[in-house]
# Entry
Amino acid sequence: MKIAVVGATGLVGTKMLEVLSERNFPVTELVPVASERSVGKEITFKEKKYIVHSMEQAIAAKPQIALFSAGGDTSKEWAPKFAAAGITVIDNSSAWRMDPSKKLIVPEVNASELSKEDKIIANPNCSTIQMVVVLNPLHKKYKIKRVVVSTYQSVTGTGVKAVSQLMNERKDGKSDEMAYKYKIDLNVIPQIDVFLDNGYTKEEMKMVNETKKIMSDDTIALTATTVRIPVMGGHSESVNMEFENDFEVKDIFKMMSNTPGIILQDDIQNQIYPMPMNAHNKDEVFVGRIRRDESQPKTLNLWIVADNLRKGAATNAVQIAEYLLENKLV
# Structure
């Protein structure tokens, strides 16, 4: 199994290599790919050194799967070229997510949609991934009518520059390198990505549109507010959902305990609930603060946390690759 990782030297690409190693994905040969300035450099994977390739060299190497994490413009240009060479691309950018001809996959939810013909597969937005893992079993049993989600997102979702900004501000009170318009340490920024004509940000509308596509249900009404906070380790979400059918809270606890990919952390007597520092470097989605919304019927509140670089990006992509391999789709 020859695997290419495009964007291998970036924050998510590095995490993809970690996840491939930790999950013992059967990589027989690695083809690391990065920008022209990194071509020829060496990276280490499983104690073996590999030379960083250019895009052309990677296509010529004919890997079976290419994990892309190099930005939307790069994916738009190069994913079709890899696909034309018979390589299955799993793309982490937003380039293909809402393309009607491409599948948008969270393995726990809709991996069964995949076939051998899918040569470009989209990895959803990080905040969408962790939410739909929880929404999916609830929707199947109680049918979700409406979702209100507010996110509290790690600076790692922006990238290395944002991490540097936060750490510099924490150390010196200021940073020469600014990923955000405003200071992020000791602050909260209620904007992720650019604003659209409807007053929502691009990130907020990604959550709305991607959720409906992944869950194959346009009837779910969803509204989002996405916020950047000065933490690392994972994204947190406060989710309020209204169902068509009523529920017992104890049944929700049981469902969350028994759903693959979810870890229930909900013991309020002992102040146990999901937090980014505990989700950091984990592949699961953590759920807690489960309680009935007492302001209206058939409505539930809960709190969701996951490592955005892992389940929100690298792990989800590797899980898609695992599914392809297990089902002989590559």
Observations:
- The mean pLDDT is 97.
- Residues 126-142 form the longest helix (17 residues).
- The chain has two domains: 2-124+313-326, 127-308.
